[in-house]
Structures are given as structure tokens and as C-alpha cells.
Batch of 2 targets.
Target 1
Amino acid sequence: MFSGKARAYTNIALIKYWGKENQDLIIPMNNSLSLTLDAFYTETCVTFSEDITEDLFYLDHQLQDSKATLKVSRFLDLVRSKADCSLHAVVKSQNFVPTAAGLASSASGLAALAGAASAALNLTLSPEELSRLARRGSGSACRSIYGGFAEWQKGDSDETSYATSIPSDGFENDLSMVFVVVNDAQKDISSRDGMQRTVETSAFYNGWLQTISQDLAKAKKAIANKDFTALGEVTEASALKMHGTTLAATPPFTYWSAESMKAMNLVRHFRESGLPCYFTMDAGPNVKILVERKNEAALLNALKDQFNAQQIVVAHAGPKIEILTEEEA
Ligand code: 2P0
């Protein structure tokens, strides 16, 4: 029996990943830049054993169906082939999220699976190699190998597409990300399907790609200068451009709900009233608000008149992936 355990934290992109150049290898169309957060994480234990004849996948103590298990098995096949191992595995994963409102993340899940499976088989991977492996499970997972800010360098091959840490002299610790959890029932379009439809059909997709390098440069400069306003402006602009591409897809779609728009309008209103904060959104209706930590209490106070307490979740910068020993798990 060979066991490994890992804990990985989710990340939110400030400059978004949206679209794949290679769907099989998960090579993206553009670089992206993220902040790893402390509030949501996944702990995963992988045990390879001679005693079982198929892979078994438990999520939050529930044995998963064949479809969910197949995704895990396909990922484990990559690890097994690297380690020249043919054993099946039991995978036990637990998501730690502050509410049950759809904030589970494939980024933390696949990063933790990559960390645990590679530790179990004693693959000694560098952070870049682990990032490459996690990327094969889910693109955004490659950024969750690092704490704080990370950039996924798109590269053009399996070997060259991975994330690296962005030096920031602790700037990430000056920041808070406040989640506004919107509960509207939405027709689900997974990020995987949504980005693919956009690449293939959106009249705005080329426009999206054209401004990526200047947005990335602005974000990295803002991090280097600890310039919150510049980072907030480019974060909000990147999210709006990404979501703009979905409106011009065929068929068109949006992840925004009326409640998302209410939250985004409030952010603009707060800013006009002298509270600097900026929003971002991913492939769902929840709105995430970037604010300086010194203004976190003022933002929470302003939000409490508009949303109930269960809808608000506060996160700060989180650590890199942790490979756990028996005692820690
Ligand atoms: C991001 N998203 O950069 C973007 C912004 C959603 C919107 O990465 O197909 O689960 O597994 O590579 O990583 C979510 O997509 O997609 C995502 P796959 P993933 O965070």
C-alpha cells in the first residue's frame, strides 16, 4: 500500500483563463493570473493498493458514481504512467467551504489530487512539474500549487504550460476578497463547455485575446508597485471582457443573474462614495469583491444592508499546496 495526502487551496483569477488551445492537454489560449485564497480548500488522501480491482472515489464521505470516478481514474492514469505503477487507488477527498452555496472548486480539488497521488507514489516533483500535472486535471488547478499570486504561463506544449509564483513582497496580505454568494437558480453551463463554445463561436473572442498581454502587464506592474487601484481596475476589466465574450457566442449565454448585477452595481456605487473596491466573476453568478484589508470592515458594513449574513464569505490570501503527513491529515 502506498498513501499520500495533500491540502490545496482554491484560487480566483484576476486575469481570467478563458479558452483552450489544446483540449486534451489543457493548454490555454492565454496566460492568466490568480490569487490563492485561504477560505476554501480540499484535503485528499490517495491510497494505491493491491487489494482492490478498481479505483474508488469518495467525496465528502460519499462514494461517487462511475462518471465522477472515471474523471479521477483518468487523472490517476497519468500519475500511474509516470510512476510505472498499475495499482488501483482509493481516493478520499473533502471540500472545506464555508457555505454549501456552490463554491466548491475544481482548482483546489485537482491540485490536491495531483499532490496526494504524486506523493503516494514517491514522484518527487518540482512545483513546476506538480503544476503541469495538476493542469491536466483542471486548468485553474495549476495555479493552486502556489500561495499568493501566481501566473499560468500558457506555453505551447505539455512541458511548457505551467504556473509560477509572482513575487509580491507580501502585498497579497494587504488584500481581502469578499464573496457575495448569489443563490438564484441558474441553468448550468460548465466553465469547460462555456469556454469552448466561446472560442468556437464568439465574435468577441479575438478581442478578448488581443488585450490579454497588456492586462497582464498592468496587473504585474500593480503587484510590483503594491498599487491596489491599478490592480482592482484591471481585475474588473478582465472579468467584464471575459463575460462579454459569452454574449456574442452562438447560442449566447451569460453567467450573470439579476443578483449578480445588483452586487456589481453596488461595488460601483461604493467606489463612487469613496470606498475603493472592485469586482470579479467566474463561471457562475457569485460576485467576488477585491478590497484592501484596511477597508474590509467598511465593505462588510455596507453589504450587510443588501445581503444576508449567510451570503457573505470573507477570504484572504492563502498558502501553497501542503503535502501532509499521517498525523496532520
Ligand atoms: C479562471 N475559470 O481563470 C477561469 C475564469 C472560470 C472563469 O478556470 O476545463 O475548471 O478544467 O480547465 O479550470 C474554471 O475553469 O476549467 C476557470 P478546465 P476550469 O479561473
Target 2
Amino acid sequence: MHRAQRRVLILGGSSEGFALAERLAREPSLYVISSLAGRTRTRRMPVGEMRLGGFGGPDGLKTYLADEAIAAVIDATHPFARNMTHNAAKAAAAAAVPIVHCWRPEWRRGTRDRWIEVDTMTEAATAIPDGASPTFLTTGRTDLAAFAGRSDIRFLARVIEPIRPEAPNDVWPAQLAFIYARGPFRYDGERELLESRGVRCIVTKNSGGSAARAKLDAARDIGLPVVMVRRPPKPAGRHVATADEAVDWLFRILGDGIPPVADTRAL
Ligand code: NAP
């Protein structure tokens, strides 16, 4: 690292996080560190330095920001990574380091969509219509336990890699099969999957973005109900919707040496 470089921490876990690392690592005035939770055994590697694993709550992150002389934080975690987002907001405020939260826009319901919108995974489990077997779960491994009470439903869960319950009280649905795949997913493949498996309902989080959107388009065209879990509340503070906007924010905050995205757009 050059002594004059400003150190930027990207809290990753989303496609925006990888795009930001790639874009910012090209700036000679910046030194970019991407932080990942390290939950999956196989992972995409960000451009630039990477660190893995939690910081030990807001206090741990506050200490890290000071020790590593971080000049700015971009929270590009997934919109459902509630703990990390709130920890980051608290730690950055305590360490007086500027932070922006980058959350892509939510998916919006169209006129032909059959969405049942709920606020929690528990509500999602209750909202699955009776007899909707199999129900396709794309909620991620940490949310499987919420569906254990629906012993009347067969579930098909899509996860990135083979998993097993992590805690003794992590009880999964009795009728559960897995599909292993990592996005992005395309319309033709999603439609084929839903039709060939005879899926009757989908449960998903309102993650937004294009990589996981195709299943909603296929569900709409087949006429399937989708139980859509709304996003958790955002922390107060500065929010942007795209990686480009986050780069513009960083340029304004750091003030020198970084050309605005409009001049160099190459993401
Ligand atoms: P979470 O509940 O917000 O995070 C739990 C703990 O994991 C945090 O308190 C933090 O530990 C650690 N952590 C999370 N993100 C981290 C990061 N980028 N760098 C370092 N530590 C991190 O998050 P989650 O829902 O378990 O998700 C874990 C990761 O997977 C996130 O980075 C997220 O972006 C990504 N992801 C999540 C989802 C989802 O639906 N939740 C979907 C796709 C990707 P400490 O408190 O010890 O710092």
C-alpha cells in the first residue's frame, strides 16, 4: 500500500460489493479491503485485499476501523443481512468514519404477479397455501427452520452448497430436498425447473436485482403464488441504490483524486 492511499472498507456479500471492489481497486489513490462473512466454503473472490469472518459486533468493527485507519465504509451487504448493516452503522458512527449503505431497489409486484407479502419467515411459513407441495424455498439455509412446522408440505430448497443443521435446535422441515446452485439464474432454466418439479408455490426474500429475478417472471407466467418476504427496516443514514452511486458518494466524501463515475464509467 502507498502511504498516500486512502483505505476503504467494503462490507461485501452482494454483487454490488464485488463490482465496487473491481471499480475502486483501479484507483491509485485508494487501498480497498473487502470483508466477507465467510459462510460458504466456495466463494467468489473480490478484486483487492479480502478479509473473512465477523469483527465481533459493533465494538469489534469500531476497533478494526481505527486500527486499520479506514477512511470510509461502503456497506454492500445483502439487503437481508440485518445484523451486519446495523453493526456497521453503529461502529462507523462511534469511530466517526463516513459510511454509505448500498441497497439495490426492491422488486415491485406487477399486475399479473400472485404475491403474498409478509414481514417475517414465520409469517411466510403460515402463508403457504394448503396443499402447495412442493413449495420451492429460495430463502437461504439460515431460514429453513422457520418451515419445520409445515409438516403437510414437501419443500424443495435451493442453496449454494451442501449444508446440515448447525445447532441442536435447528430443526428443518421433515420433507425437505435440496437443489445446489449459485446464481445468476435465467428465465428458461427457472421455468423448466418449476414445471419439471411440479412446483406449486415459491417462498423468497425481496432481494431485488437481476440475478434472482427470473424465478418471479417464470412464476408469473405459470400462474404460481409467490410468498414474498419484505425487507427488514433500514438503519438511518446515507443510502444509495447502485455501485455507481456509492462510488460517487465516496468521491464526494474523500474529496480528492477520484474521478466521478460519470467520467470513467466502466463497471
Ligand atoms: P448478518 O445476520 O447480518 O450477519 C451476522 C454476522 O456475520 C454479523 O454480525 C457479522 O459478525 C458477520 N458478518 C456478516 N456480514 C459480514 C461481512 N460482510 N464481513 C464480515 N462479517 C460479516 O448476515 P447474514 O444474513 O448471516 O449474511 C452473511 C453474509 O452473507 C452477509 O455478508 C450478506 O451480505 C451475505 N448474504 C446474505 C443473504 C441473506 O439473505 N441474509 C443473502 C446473500 C448473501 P460480527 O458481528 O462478528 O461482526
